[in-house]
Amino acid sequence: MANQIMKKNPLLFLIISSTLATLTTSKSTIEPCSTSSTCNSFLGYTLYTDLKVTELASLFQADPTSILLSNSISTSYPDVENHVLPSHLFLKIPITCSCVDGIRKSTSTRYKTRTSDTLDSIAGSVYGGLVSPEQIQVANPEIKSSIAPDVGTSLVIPLPCACFNGTDESLPAVYLSYVVRGVDTMGGIARRFSTTVADLTNVNAMGAPDINPGDILAVPLLACGSNFPKYATDYGLTIPNGSYALTADHCVQCSCALGSRSMYCEPASLSVSCSSMQCRNSKFMLGNITTQESSAGCKLTTCSYNGFANGTIFTTLSRSLQPRCPGPPQLAPLIAPPDTVPKELMYAPSPSPTPSPAPESDGVVSEGPSIAAAAPRGATVASSSSIPGDPANGPAGSISIASCLTSYHSVVVLLISFACYSFLILV
User: Fold this and answer.
1) How far is CA 46 from CA 60, 85, 277, 348, in A?
2) What is the pLDDT at residue 144?
């Protein structure tokens, strides 16, 4: 049959062949669950247009300051929450990962539709393929039209996430949901996020390390874990290497240095009212570390953070004898709020605050050096450019299951192609 079509009308054969090639499915890694526990997780998100920090935060109902610190962006600049972040910038968005209908996902995000919005544009452009039109429709059964929802409609946006017990290969880890782009390879993704192809393949239950644009991978990020008591509201706090987290109602700022497994917490610099941060029965304040050399070694005294509950900041005073005295606490470097994204960084993960060696050539976009951004700029007009994403579809009952068609448009093109073929046969 295919040979007959090719002989009669080679152009139509090419149209049908190319159309069928577009009817690929996207995969999304899901994590089954059976408890009400939550964890902190991240979304890998590329800005589809210039956005103020507050505008970006409202897209995900996230805290603006937490977004900045999660990406090691300094919050000490004046009016930093109104700083305009550039289009194409890749950021980690902190979210709370819950157990909903037996799988891990986040359902706390709401989106109010605007003029000319469609489920396709909301999923592919606004949320960069982290959700599919079909998933939005399922989460909002009251929608009358999937093509053009009524302006002002509040939509639930289900977003992918994973916890996997906060570990990866028995070490502390936090998981990032990453949308595969056309330039990505498994090796490139692994190197950017300091993991291995074998680990990515194992975490995502992949039979082979094959990926396609639009797939959503759970990427383990090296992290610093915590041992707070279970009654603490920030129990299980985990911070990716090279970033920060705010906790205790913005009173405490914790850091995880590059390559570290132990977080360091100290009073946050934000102007908020906080409970006492003094270690009991001492003059030490949270974050204080003293050392004293002796013939037996180094006497180390530390006032550490131990969680937050019922408006109270808990601290722990510890004394130990070490073979030698440690240096000052290592903090993750901070960068200035970025104004531009170098061309070579487009679609690449958030740049490391310190330069990293260029990866081997395998179709991967190099991370390059850190962005040395200038001081926050004034008001600007947001650009109209957007990134038409390949919306990835969501869970289908188990890990890494192929889901439904990537785009409605492919179906339309296919129908048109077969209609043309039928017409030619009749003629």
Assistant:
1) 13, 11, 37, 9
2) 77
> 16-27: per-residue pLDDT in tens?
444 444 444 678
Residue with tokens 């900045």: 68
Residues 215 and 392 sit within 8 Å (Cβ to Cβ)? yes
Q: H-helix or E-strand containing 63?
A: none
Mean pLDDT of the chain: 80
Q: How far apart are CA 352 and CA 370, in angstroms?
A: 6
- Please identify which residue in the block is written with the tokens 């390390």: 209
Helix (H, G, I), strand (E, B) or coil at 57: helix
**Strand 103-112 relative to strand 90-100, pairing:** antiparallel
Instruction: Look at residues 393, 399, 392 and name the one whose alpha carbon lies nearest to residue 33.
Output: 399
CA atoms within 13 A on the CB side of 82: 7
C-alpha distance across the termini of the chain, in Å: 17
Distance CA 346, CA 369 (A): 13
Query: 391 with 26: CB under 8 angstroms?
Result: yes
Cβ atoms within 10 Å, residue 259: 10
Distance CA 80, CA 408 (A): 40
Fill in the amino acid letter for 2.
A
